[in-house]
Design a protein that fits this description.
Layout lengths: L11 H4 L2 H17 L3 H18 L3 H25 L4 E5 L2 E4 H24 L5 H10 L4 H30 L8 H31 L16 H22 L6
Antiparallel strand pairs: 1-2
Helix pairs in contact: 2-5, 2-9, 3-5, 3-9, 4-5, 6-7, 7-8
Length: about 250
């Protein structure tokens, strides 16, 4: 199962109202996604790094998550400068790197790192159940919220079923190779997984009906805004305004 290790903590960000974190994580991410000015992007990256530090998350674990997206950014830095049209900046053998391509790759790298760290600091610090109830309190479509909660709960059941089936075929001497028999075996494996998933879903549905389920999940914990939430609301609003001013009225642009 997913450990939700980031959700276990006592920092001030962990204690903030989930609705507050959801709203401002979304707004700041959207603003950074549409930004093109480097002062805005660098400031957003600094803000995201600051939130990660305030959250008290283990930096090694955060770095591992950043490594995945930065591997993709390395590929962009290798491809975009030589495929994006613009002013030649340097020549590497027969290849020409354009200034516009380099700037575009840099913008994408800054945006992706900043947005990921913002979501790690504000969203990953809450449990999936809390995330679902927070979305429900923000009047997101109920069916989407229920789908998120149920999918999170039963994705591990599907993983267990897959491991059980995979163990069964290995006990019977199956060794994967690049031949038709292997392809057929994996096709049968995933077909049986779908059949068992449908069967399990039907059993779960009837079990929920027996327990009085009427299409609604109830949350015992009631969200409420505290003084700390109000202070952070002001902080996030100021940060949004400052980032917006940097973007649409920047002192200098690259």
């Amino acid at each position: 199962m997913l450990s939700e290790s980031f959700a276990r903590g006592t920092s001030v960000l962990h204690r903030l109202d989930p609705r507050l974190r959801l709203v401002f994580a979304t707004l700041i991410s959207i603003l950074l996604a549409v930004s093109t000015a480097f002062p805005t992007l660098f400031t957003g990256l600094a803000l995201a790094a600051g939130l990660v530090l305030v959250s008290g998350l283990p930096l090694v674990e955060v770095s591992r998550r950043l490594t995945v997206i930065n591997l993709f950014n390395v590929i962009l830095f290798l491809v975009l400068p030589i495929t994006y049209e613009g002013t030649p900046a340097l020549h590497i053998g027969p290849l020409t790197c354009t200034r516009e391509g380099l700037l575009l790759a840099a913008r994408i790298a800054l945006k992706s790192n900043a947005i990921l760290m913002i979501f790690v600091a504000l969203i990953a610090t809450m449990a999936i159940a809390t995330l679902g109830h927070g979305l429900h309190r923000l009047h997101m479509p109920k069916k989407l919220v229920y789908l998120l909660l149920i999918a999170y709960r039963y994705v591990f059941v599907l993983e267990q079923e897959y491991q059980r089936l995979h163990t069964a075929i290995r006990i019977r001497g199956f060794v994967p190779k690049t031949n038709l028999h292997t392809y057929k075996t994996y096709a049968y494996l995933f077909g049986m997984l779908l059949v068992r998933a449908l069967t399990r879903a039907d059993r779960v549905y009837h079990a929920m009906l027996c327990r009085g389920f009427k299409g609604k999940f109830y949350c015992i914990h009631q969200f409420s805004f505290s003084r700390t939430d109000r202070i952070w609301t002001v902080f996030f609003l100021v940060a949004l305004i400052f980032l917006g001013r940097l973007e649409w009225a920047p002192p200098a642009r690259f």
